[in-house]
Specification:
The protein is α+β, with helices and mostly antiparallel strands. The chain has a two-stranded parallel ribbon with strand order 1-2. α2 links the parallel β1 (25-29) and β2 (56-60). It contains 2 helices and 2 strands; from the N terminus they run αβαβ. The protein has helices spanning 7-19, 37-52, and strands at 25-29, 56-60.
Length: 73
């Protein structure tokens, strides 16, 4: 079923599946690869919300324009 969903929706489903157990640390490796600008903005907004609620995040990405605002450089 997952592979029948659009790529952006797949990423959101995978993020939801990951955070459902409220992990202390979330590691994302290029989660926005293949997403368009609007999908990337939506995904990163959700990541920013998670970080504002105290979740620790390691986020790997190659393009600064695809990084969420919550990251410290």
């Amino acid at each position: 079923l997952l592979n029948t969903l659009p790529l952006g929706t797949q990423r959101l489903v995978l993020l939801a599946r990951t955070i459902i157990k409220n992990p202390e640390l979330l590691i994302l490796d290029e989660p926005c690869q293949g997403l368009d600008k609007q999908q990337t903005k939506h995904f990163n907004h959700l990541v920013d919300e998670l970080c504002s609620n105290g979740m620790t995040l390691i986020y790997v990405g190659h393009f600064e324009s695809q990084l969420p605002n919550c990251l410290e450089k």
